Please model this.
Amino acid sequence: MQSVRPKVLIVDDDPSHLEIYGLLVQQAGYDPVPALVRFSGADYPAEREIQLVLLDYKLDSVKTSVDIAEEVRARYPAAPILLLSDVWSLPSDIAPYVAEFVRKGEPAKLMSTLKRMLPVSGDAARP
Model:
């Protein structure tokens, strides 16, 4: 039997952040699905069953985080967006797209917010 874990799309322009947040997401009981943002946009995975999106606010791209949030909403309409940033408060331009906001560098808060937004119901098993 294989456990079914909710999938969290991690959208960031820094490959090391994708790796770090991927490990945190995995520790919290989810399957991380990375999406690297390049200069001209994001490389979204073929995976369509995303339950939550973790989005970096400051992106080194011609597309802003608002542009990316709109794309994410179109691709994964049921998945709430959790915004990560080093700014002190939720920026107003992206606020309409975001369900929760966590400052970078607060891994315990990130993990507790993930679990509150997307509870892991044990290890649901499938035959």
Q: What stands out?
A: Residues 15-27 form the longest helix (13 residues).
